[in-house]
Amino acid sequence: MPGVVAFISAKDVPGQNRRLWFNNPEELFAEEEVICVGQIIGAIVAETREQAKRAADQVAITYQDIQPIFFTIEEAIEHQSFFDPKRKLERGNVEEAFEKADHILEGELYMGGQEHFYMETQGLIAIPKGEASEMELFVASQHAAYTQEVVGITLGIDSNKITCHVKRLGGGFGGKVMKIASLSAIAATAVYKTGRAVRCVLERGDDMLITSGRSPFLGKYKVGYMNDGTILAADITYYSNGGCTLDESSFIMEKALLHMDNGYKIPHLRGRGLVCKTYLPSYTAFRGFGGPQGLTIIESVLHEVAVKCGLPTHQVRDINLYKDEKCYTHHKQLFSPHDMVRCWNECLEKSDYTHRCLSIEQFNAHNHWKKRGISIVPLKFGIGFSKGFYNQGAALVNIYKDGSVLISHGGTEMGQGINTKAIQIASRILKVPMSSIHIKETCTGNVPNAAPSAASFGTDAVGMAVKNGCEELMRRLEPLIKKHTQYTWQQLVVEAYCQKISLSATGFFMGPHTSVDWEKSEGSAYYYFTFGACCSEVEIDCLTGDHKNIRTDIVMDVGRSINPALDVGQVEGGFVQGIGLYTIEELNFSPEGVLLTRGPSQYKIPALCDVPPQLNVHLLSNAENPHAVYSSKGIGEPPVFFGCTLFFAIKDAIAAARRERGLSDSFPFSSPATAEKIRMACEDCFTRMNPLDKKVQIKPWAINV
Ligand code: MTE
What we know:
GO molecular function: 2 iron, 2 sulfur cluster binding; iron ion binding; oxidoreductase activity
Family: Belongs to the xanthine dehydrogenase family.
Keywords: 2Fe-2S, FAD, Flavoprotein, Iron, Iron-sulfur, Metal-binding, Molybdenum, Oxidoreductase
Pfam family, one: MoCoBD_1
Shape: globular
Bound molecules: ligand MTE
Strand order of the largest sheet: 5-13-12-11-6
Protein name: Aldehyde oxidase/xanthine dehydrogenase a/b hammerhead domain-containing protein
Number of strands: 24
């Protein structure tokens, strides 16, 4: 075909046709079996995008169906199709405690997945250098070192010949750690075959289909509680849909289990985690990394217990909170919940919670078709990697003779503000204005073997490394500073150069050795915890299922913020992403496992009208954190979970509608709380006209995976 340069498939890969992740191989090009709709079989290289697309349309493939194929968590449970390892965490004696409880409740919560919907889809440019197999990749990756490694293994070339450059990402949200490495390896294979530079940028629909997103979760629980709402024991089995390959799903499940206690001292607690293997595109990391799913399911337990006890939900949450000065999590990590309880109390106060509950009651008494609801939740979120070796950071600080400073670090800028904070830290130590300090890019040639910018730990690790590098330079400059007190910074630097003092230093941060012994159910999984609390009020329209987010108050403990504007931005941004996760964003798959929602016209992300008109973010005052740089805290991921306050507030509002109609206020409901689900949960004479209610068998157009 005109313009087509090459067709690349598994046979063109000079090294390994595998991306390896902790010994879990994933094929770059399908070789014998295609295990999901969206798997890459080959790549077409053409002069233009249009020519490549036209050529791709001409590819005809005949498939033979694999049997059986299945896509949903329920089906995977039926087929006992799970990835290893299966995880368990346990404290206390759950069975014995069930015997002592006043009541036992069993239930479940399904939480749908989420598409990253970063502004910039996955993309890269790979350029051959024409010498010694060297290659440069300009790539939007959150983990440049991993991309470099995968490209090297694919081409059979040493890492020292492959350089990955990351200027910045138009949003990553966890989605550009793993999948971009495969895409880079495919583009690099095309470079290898053609000897020409290759650009690969996914269109939105393909990006959504191929790279997938947050895993759907199903939590099945049994809980034992007392009449006053105190929870004695909970036994929760978490199932996630991992799709067709493991990717990061086992670590995501671990994080869900490690967060299953949230801020609650449930003395007897057991969690099991199983990652379902299905024939869907492989799910991957997404901001929160299993945390939101693990937390939401325990919040659902608290909510249902309160409903059953006929008690206000905030009261049941309050009496179950960790409150002692020194507490142990269910994985036996020591921590102090002091600042979490402060956030909780401040949030109750700042949101005027008690008073607003009364107003909501009045509103609901006077309105039949519109109902309001409110919800407040606490948050304890672990920061850092539970795989301890990732907890490291590195940086390179160069001072030039004109006094300007260039920083390279191992983190990647994706909008979270890592570069701004790194420059602030350097400016503070070197005592030069921020305008004299520059960060050009992240480059594997400058800072090797860097950890991914993930787990809300990137800025922490890099910040410490930059501090370390700058302090080293200041140590070298100190004698000159003392001797030439009248010198300007630039004069000092020139003098150091003339004295043959190196003006380049590496900085390193060896983070904590976190780890979990899954056999013993114990371990310090996190460096520290970021705390918070959030309260939201909503109004639903019982006839249309539409809802309005009225007001949200968040109190967040970020320690001593290095940059409050950035931190508040992260809280707001994370919360808005949570609005999408819990109330709007719904991925629909056909019964044949084809993703139907492949763009903004089918998949809705939050718009301005979804942001509560009153969104108050307060940073907790007088908070400290001895563990992180300048007593700050990681904040990138935790606020996403706060979107669940809207989910529970909607549930509260639906319950008010149902009570008025003489129906039970305990009813099944799953996330996201879409208009369709809200409408159907507000049962009335109109919903009863729905044939589904009459148990007529209709093949669904879309399935919950
Ligand atoms: N904020 C913006 N604007 N864009 C992003 O892609 N990623 C989030 C969060 N905030 C993201 C973001 C994710 S997934 C993580 S882990 C943290 O930022 C990373 O920030 P850190 O470098 O401070 O750890």
